Every structure is written in structure tokens, then in C-alpha cells.
Amino acid sequence: MLVAKRTKELKLQVANRSIAPVICEDFQITFDAPIIKKVNENCHFYWMRNVPNDTSKIDLYFDAGNVLSQPIIASITAAMLLTGSQKKSAQEIHETLDFYGAYYDIELTQEYCIVHLYALKENLEQVTKSFIDALINMDCLESQLKLILDEKKQKFAINLQRVSAIAQRNFQQLVFQGTPYKRLVKSGDFNKITAEQIKCFYHKYYLHGLSRIHVIGELSETTCSKIIDILSPLASQVKTKKAFHFENAKTNMHIPKKNALQSAIRIGKICINKHHEDFIGFSILCTILGDYFGSRLMKNIREDKGYTYGIGCAIQELSNTGVFMIVTEVGVDQRELALKEIKKEIEILQRVLVPKRELNLVKNYLLGQALKAADGPYAQFDLFLGVDLQGIGINYYEIYLQKLKNITSIELRNLAKRHLNWDDFSIVTVG
Description:
By secondary structure, this protein is of the alpha+beta class. It has two domains: 200 residues, 2-Layer Sandwich (Cytochrome Bc1 Complex, Chain A, domain 1); 179 residues, Cytochrome Bc1 Complex, Chain A, domain 1 (2-Layer Sandwich), CATH 3.30.830.10. The chain has 15 helices and eleven strands. The strands form two sheets. The chain has a six-stranded mixed sheet with strand order 1-2-6-3-5-4. It has a five-stranded mixed sheet with strand order 7-11-8-10-9, sandwiched between helices. It starts with a helix and ends with a strand. 34% of the residues are buried.
């Protein structure tokens, strides 16, 4: 009898899959900003607390990205940060981090080298101290340099066999022409690197190039103060950011590749970033075009035509600009057909109003993504970072939600006409 009753209760709890759940738009998202402390005029400390567990993380932003020198020098220097110091070998450094249950990751972008350190909150101070001790005393051993150069040279040679890598390299040169962002690693560069070049870059951009310190964790004020004291000697003494004029080459380039089974496609242009009044609407338009699984490009190029396993578009934001890009790989025989269909989908957005049902679907999808993106202190910090790196306040997201709820199909069509003109694109195909 009890089993029958329990079975009936379970049946009542099962959702009726033939009835769509009620969509609720009447909700509020709280966007939290971290506590900010000034280390010096060019370096700030950002602290997000209220973490409901013992985990913690610290991110160190060094102004040591690819744009500041030859990309290979920035890359090799970043790879050598924990390869041995004047006091400890690489093995001893890693054993120390392991002892504290910590791990690290190093991310190199066009503008920054970002060191991510993860540890329990009780060990974060000691982990930071151990890492900085290894960084300050980095020895730049010739033997370690040779190992890293050989490894990167092999990976580079393998990567250059991929049509996607060739397309991305050529696309970067077309989009960022006339600026340092255009610079690329070349095969011969690996044979020209010296320990002296690495040391110069390291002294200039690491020992005096720390511009941002991000800490997430339920730490004490005392611990935060100690971490600031540990890191303050590395704080940047000068501003390194420069403004460039960005204008992509409006051209269509095809690079044949013998025996290639697929063609890589890159289509894009210099576009707007969060500082532009059109950006929020343009980002919604990009979602409709190709930034979620049910997008128009996915439905046409993947589901209907079967030219690819995946296609998408995105907006990459940099300090001074943005880049709109469509990315895919299709069969070699379908390359021109795919380009034709991509162009068709863009032109439809410029002529035909987005149907109400589709627009409501995308709005609800993006509202759900906003809820997900604001879930917890780590996610909240990522949201803050997304605006603060652009010099914009956290209230940007409240403006975003209002715009998202109220945007119309007419506005989207006008945005497509302004920002998605086919003749303005840099187009690269390889294979």
C-alpha cells in the first residue's frame, strides 16, 4: 500500500513534457562589484568575498601581452615563469605548490599575461608568496629555454598544417592591419630567440608590470593586506596602454591547401565594443545570427544544408575596439556554397523583420544566460571584469537587461544594415 502511494506521488511530480513551462520575466538579478583597493596609481586590488566555501583564487594581470613585443618573446617568457629560480629548481617550486594543494594556469592574451593561482583560502597567502619568490628570482636557464623553444617549435609546425590555424593567422593580419595586433609568430623566429631577450622582457614587464590583482575568497582583511604587501613591489610604475587606429582590409582571400578535406572560413570586421550605444542591440543580433545552437547560421548551414558540424559568430572585445567574426569549417566542395548561404542569412536580417516568436525565444535564452552568468561570486567577478576592463560601471548589466527586454525587430533590422554590410568584411578561406 505504501509502495502504491509513493508511486502515485512520484507520478504527480513528473512534469508534463507536452506542456511548455511558464516563462517568467519578472525577476531581478543583483550584480555585485568587488571591494577595490589602490596599490599604486597604475595597479589596483579587487576583492570579491562572500564565497560560501573554502576555495579561493588570485589572478595576477601583468602588462606583458603579445602586443608589447614580438609574440614569441611574450609567449616564451610566460612559459618560463616557473622553470627554476636562483633559490629553487622547477621541481622544488612545483613540489611547494603541491604541498599546499595549489595549482596554477598561465594565460597569454594580446594585452596581458594572466597568472591564475588556485588554493584553499587558508593557504592563499603562502601560495602567493611562493609563486612571487619564484617569479622574482627567475633564473632563465639556457637548458630550460632550449626545451621550451623546441617544444613550442614542434607544436607550431603541427598547428600550421591545420586549415583553421592558417585561416585565423591570415584573418588576424587582415583585421588588425597597421597595428601591433597584426604581428604573428613565424617559423624562423624560434631560432633567433636568446636568453638575453627573455630577460629584458621579463625585467621590464613582470618585475614592474603588475597592473591588476584579483582575489576571490572569504579572506580576512589582514590576509588581503599581507597579499598586497607581497605583490606591491611588482606593481606597474607606468601606464602601458596605447590607442591604435583599427580598420580591417575589405577583401576576400583564398589560400589553397593541397589534400585538404575541409575549408576553414573566417569572415569578420572591426566593429564596436561596449562603449558604443549600439553594442547591446548588436550583441543580441549576433545571437540571432549565430551565437546559440538554434541560431540562423546553425539551422541553415548545419541542420538544413549539412555543410558543417558547427558554425558560429562572436564579438571579441579589446581595450580600444571590437572584432566581429564568423567561424566555421566546411567540406572543400561546399566552400563557395557556404559563403553564399552566410551572405544570404545576413541580407535577410537587413531586409526582413525578425519574427516575434523567434525574438521572444532569443530574449528568453539570453535572460537565462544572464541568470546563469550571475550565479555565485566567481561568476559575478567575471561579469565585473567584463565591464571594468572597458572602464565601464557594473550598472551596465542593468541597462543590458532593460534593452534586452524592450528591443524590437525594427531596431535589429536597422543594426544589421549599419553593422553587417557584406562589402565591409575581411573574408579568408583556406583549403
